[in-house]
Records
---
Amino acid sequence: MLASALPSAALAHPHGWIDLSVEVVTDADGNATALHQTWRMDPFYSLVVLEELSRGEEANLDEELDQLGHEIRDNVAAQHYFTEVRLNGERQALGEVTNYTALARNGRLHFMFRLPLAEPQPLEENELTYQVFDPTYYLEVVHEAEDNIIRDDALTLHGERECSLSVEPADPDPELIMRATMLDKDESGEPGLGRHFAETGVVACR
């Protein structure tokens, strides 16, 4: 879980969220090769973490953020980077994240990384979809939005290929919603719960 990479004080807030933006990266042939993701942590979560990292007279925030980024990468790697990618409904294997950074911007903690696909995947006449979610639903992941409207830059496509881009809202079963709301403040949902609350990014090039 991402929270395990953060200072213990952050655990006092059980239901944080991540504002997400994704760029689908393509190669010269128009094949999808990676998802460049930016996770913008919620203000309270960010405040607690940044205050923790700044403690001490000799604290170097840049160095602390570098270490935090490394810890977050290692922890979410065990959870497939919170990401599932499918091409025409078939789940795709992912590569290792080696390009990543953590930084503070306008009081918010950002974690940015390039998640490669194990093999380039053709977009022409295909539909690529992805979901980004915390499996235990400790953190909610939602695309960047203003006034509950998904921003145009929340999902972008690198390159000039003509494709339609959209973000489909989650549609969880009411029973699952009830189960999630009944979790105690120090509890996380069972593995897989977060998938039911995940938005779906769609890149359709048919």
---
Amino acid sequence: MKAETGIEGLDELIGGGLPQGRVYLLNGSPGSGKTTFGMQYLIHGVSFGDAGLYVTLMQNSEHIIADISTYSLNLSALMKMKKIFFADLGPEMEYGYMDELKEVINPESNMNPYPVEGEPPSASTVFKEIAAHVAVNDIKRVVVDPLSSIRFSNQDKCLEKMEMARFLRNLQALGCTTLLIDDQPIPVSVSSEHFAADGVILFHNPASDDEDRSLQIIKMRGVPHPVSRQAFRFGEKGIEVLGRR
């Protein structure tokens, strides 16, 4: 079974959509279209009866909603119908709190000077939030944005790789079709997520004003696909893939 993305011109390139129940990585620099892609994917799923969950780990969910509402996608209506959900797990601490806390903590003590609410969410925390929504709201499609917030929660590189692999395997076990948004520029080296994910799509910003934005399907397990860059634009309903340029 395939989960149609709803991205005009893309589903035809991947045999009708993403194989269901798997995890996919969207990789690219800021402003390259990843968030719009993710929201279009969730919203399109509603037409198939798939409830969607957008997990934001950095940007305020209200800002995402406002930005996506500029497209003709009826996001507000779908939220009221409880078809699209947001889980905002980003930092909430206001400036000044850390300074006040440091003044009352003895530097010689063994107390952790960083409060729990100031720490980035762990992979385990994010997974539990997703699993709870899946159980309560029958979620079928998930977007996690950005993956780097989870990656940077662990300072040990070996443990980071193990935890990320574990995170992806647990997401796959949920049975949802999940998109993980990575806000790093095109990676210099291949990360553990690239190996573990069932598909990888790279987003490219134009190098000059006369070039188009483009996306590139690097990996899609079990699906024949082109590897060349596919130009796209932002239309009335979001991303529209124009084809090879």
